[in-house]
Structure formats: C-alpha cells, structure tokens
Amino acid sequence: MNFRRGNSNDLEQLKELGVRSWIQFKEELADKHWNDLYKTLSNWETYADLLKISDCVICENNEKIIGMAFLVSKGNPTEIYDEKWCHLRFVSVDPEYRGNKIGEALTSMCIEIATENNEQTMALHTSEIMHSAKHIYQKLGFKIYKEIDQRLGIKYWLYTLELDEFKAKSRNQL
Questions:
Q1: Sorted alphabetically, which PROSITE patterns does this protein's record hold (predicted)?
Q2: How many other β-carbons are positioned within 10 Å of the β-carbon of residue 28?
Q3: Lesser CB count within 10 Å: N end or C end of the chain?
C-alpha cells in the first residue's frame, strides 16, 4: 500500500471509492436520505470542489485508490464548521481493505498536515451509525464539541481536536 497526495487526475477513482465505501450505510438510512447522500457521493463535482479547498490524502494498492481523506483548510466555513477551523471530510476506506488501519493512517496524516500548516483547531462530524470512525477519532484525541442538527435523519456530533494540545501530548509520549 502507498500513501500520497490526491489530485484532479484521481477524480473518477475518488468518486467510485466514495460510493463503494459509503454504500454500507444504505440499509441504515431511509430511502430519501440514502438517495440524497448517493447524489453527493456519485457526483464528481463533490470531489473536484473539495480538491480546490483541501489537501487530499489517498491510499493506493496497485494504483487503485482504496482510501481517501480531505483536509479542508481554515477560512472555508460551513453551517457546521467555524471559519477558524480546518476540517476533515470524507474519510473513506474500500470495504475490502477495512481493518488495516487505513482510516486511522489517513486521519493521522491529515493531523500532520494541519499541524504543518499551523492550524489551531481541527474539526469533523460523524454520526451514530459510523461506529468505526468514532472509535478512530476518539483514539486520536478528538472530543465531542456538541451534537448538531440531524443529517440524513440520524444523529450527528461535531468533534474537535486542539492541535497545540495534540502536539504537546505527542512530544510527551516520545
């Protein structure tokens, strides 16, 4: 497996991975909500727009993208994220490769990039059905900031990681 920065040449594979990795939630969502999510996941513009404002990290196996994550820099606020925060989007791993700590590695790489970019706070949102993701984020030090309005008909929480605290903790563990 190889990790590298993603770019616009990867758009089709990013889209395919998005659909392949998120289809696991289809049965847990109402049809309307799955259809809304699918429209986002299957639209290459979703990924093209993210590439314009983020650092994309991917994991490949034999030139096939099997993992991705996008770190959106501060200054790109949304209804969820403060303009002073960088935030993590679409951490996704191909179902065939789950259990190999790829999601954790991608998230850790995004934390490193955020630290190098002198970001102060990193945020992400995750839901009640994303058990593996919540475990990874908590293990890496993210803490629940607050519950946010339901999305796709399910509960979501906003998590943050104070990067200065993370750096200090990392130094103390060396």
A1: GNAT
A2: 15
A3: C
Which structure tokens are listed for 49? Answer: 């727009």
Helices (H) and strands (E) in the chain, counts: 6, 7
Which pTM does this prediction carry?
Answer: 0.92
Q: For the chain, list the domains and their CATH numbers.
A: 2-173 (3.40.630.30)
Q: Is 75 left (phi over 0), alpha (psi -120 to 50) or beta?
A: left
Please tell me the predicted confidence (pLDDT) of residue 145.
96
Residue type, position 105, single letter: A
> Residue 70 is inside which H or E element, if any?
strand 64-72
**In the prediction, which pLDDT does 152 show?**
83
- Spatial neighbors of 154 by CB under 8 A, at least 6 apart, are 28, 29, 33, 127, 128, 129
Q: Sign (positive/negative) of CA torsion 121, 157, 31, 17?
A: positive
Nearest alpha carbon to residue 113 among 145, 81, 169, 74 = 74
